[in-house]
Amino acid sequence: MKGLGDCVVESGFLETAAEMAGLAILAENIDGVRAHLERMREMAKPLMAVAIPDEVESAPVFEAGVFEPGVFEP
Question: In three state form, how does the secondary structure of 1-44 look?
Fold first, then answer.
């Protein structure tokens, strides 16, 4: 079974995805972009192979607040 990462190397997928995202990739750069995506896929394989148990809690979401003057002063 192919994952999304496998689709990147297939003809037409990268071009279609770029168009849908509103990105313009010059024809002379498409092979380089494809090569970078393939390399990133290879780099991500060990990370994606780690199974995370369902019991693991997600980290809290950071929400920026309003800066209060004097809060960080000693």
Answer: CCCHHHHCCCCCHHHHHHHHCCCCCCHHHHHHHHHHHHHHHHHH
